[in-house]
Amino acid sequence: MVAMGDEKQSAADMGFDPGMKRKLLAGIEAGLLRDVHAVLVSRGGHLVLEHYRDAPDESWGRPLGTVAFDAHTLHDLRSVTKSVVSLLYGMALDRGLVPPPEAPLLVQFPEYPDLAADPARVGLTIGHALNMTLGLDWDEYRSYADPLNSEIAMENAPDRYRFVLEQAVIHAPGTNWVYSGGATALVGAIIERGTGRRIEDFAREALFEPLGIAHFEWMSGRDGIASPASGLRLNARDLLRIGQLVLDGGCVDDRHIVSQRWIEMSLKPSVATGDGLRYGCFWFHDEAPVLGLPKHWVAGFGNGGQRLWLMPELGIACVIYSGAYNAPDGWVSPTRIWREIVLANLRSV
Predict the structure, then answer these.
(1) CB–CB of 298/308 below 8 Å?
(2) φ, ψ at 106 (rounded to 5°)
(3) How far apart are CA 199 and CA 226, in angstroms?
(4) Confidence (pTM)
(5) Across 127-263, where does the E strand assignment appear?
(6) pLDDT at 227
(7) Which of 116, 195, 333, 337 is the most buried (most CB within 10 A)?
(8) Mean pLDDT throughout 294-312?
(9) Is the backbone of residue 236 left (phi > 0), alpha (psi -120 to 50) or beta?
(10) How far apart are CA 70 and CA 50, in angstroms?
(11) Per residue in 321-339, pLDDT tens?
(12) Sorting pLDDT into bands at 50, 70 and 90, what band is 145?
């Protein structure tokens, strides 16, 4: 569990410059770090920085007005939800409730025999959905305010799963990475069908309760199905707890709630994204310099600047909540916080 100790003293004790928070505040006040709602950093399970601001926010596009953020305030994770779904799939896999990644995908959706009979789709596997290499036509590079965005179109479709699976095949499965909330929707359906429970109910029992997470929301589409791609809302400390679970190899209170085998498998980068990053099972991967040495990180990224960054080798977790929804430069401030406030202020490894 993440300890909630004194920030400045803990920062120095855990190898960070004790002025790290002051630098964060200076960046925000100068307008260099924009739309920031919350920043939390931990190392070795100890909270070393925690900052919240009052700011305008929304929930899945619904304006909430100005919110006084604190340790208890729920916030959209947007696509960081996908990384949580990766954990849920691993938990269901550990229990023998879902097929393994190499299992055929369309077998899990027997209601679409016409699609299963298409030779171009026969080779699709669950693993191709987990690492977004389905090879199906999909466009999430449009604004999420645009109804032609594929995820929004999926939410508006009469049958979300057919909508995803019937998209044109444009690449051989496993050969090209294309960002796809539809892929996550399919994995969510497999979890629900395998466990016999709604994804939010399985999450509550398997993941949230063992971590002491009591309050969450999971937004649903028009069809009443909770969105595995972007619907989860958590407070920042609880998302940090999930990050710490990953750093701890799936173990909490000396008990594995998800196997270390799945943690290692899901975090293994398997495909290049085309923009310098790599991708595992709903996790992004890259390296960053720390005291002159490259260190591997993994992360969940979400629209508007939502981030869960993890640096396993150094035991660092960082949660950033932001309000730059649909902004093309929404990635800039959280990236600067990670590089220039967190990693640049690490004084010992």
Answers:
(1) no
(2) -70, -20
(3) 7
(4) 0.96
(5) 217-218, 232-234, 251-252, 255-256
(6) 97
(7) 337
(8) 98
(9) alpha
(10) 9
(11) 999 999 999 999 999 999 9
(12) confident
Residue 8 pLDDT > 90, yes or no?
no
Rounded to an integer, what distance in angstroms lies between the CA atom of residue 286 and that of residue 288? 7
> HSE-up of 27 (CA within 13 Å, CB side)?
24
Whether residue 160 contacts residue 188, with contact meaning beta carbons closer than 8 Å, is answered with no
Residue for token pair 């600067």? 336
Residue 310 per-residue DSSP state: E
Q: Which of 234, 206, 202 is nearest to 218 (CA)?
A: 234
Top-confidence residue, 71 or 7? 71
What pLDDT band is residue 4 in, cutting at 50, 70 and 90? very low
CB atoms within 10 A of CB 148: 9
Buried b (16+ CB within 10 A) or exposed e, 133-146: bbbbebebeeebee
Which residue in this structure is represented by tokens 């949230």?
A: 208
| Angstrom distance (rounded) from CA 183 to CA 176 | 13
Residue 327 identity (one-letter amino acid): A
The residues near 201 (Cβ < 8 Å, ≥ 6 apart) are: none
331/341 Cα distance (integer angstroms): 15
Structural domain boundaries in the chain: 1-58+66-73+283-349, 75-234+254-271
pLDDT bin (cut points 50, 70, 90) of residue 5 is very low
pLDDT at 7: 52
Q: Which residues pair with 58 in a beta bridge?
A: 63
- Name the amino acid, one letter, at 22: R
**Sign of the alpha-carbon dihedral angle for 100, 213, 331, 230:** positive
Given 3.40.30.10, 2.40.30.20, 3.40.710.10, 3.20.20.140, which CATH number is that of 75-234+254-271?
3.40.710.10
| 334's tokens | 């959280």
Integer Cα distance of 144 and 90 in angstroms: 29
pLDDT reported for residue 143: 86
More confident residue, 232 or 2: 232
Distance CA 157, CA 58 (A): 24
Closest CA to 231 of 47, 99, 77, 104: 77
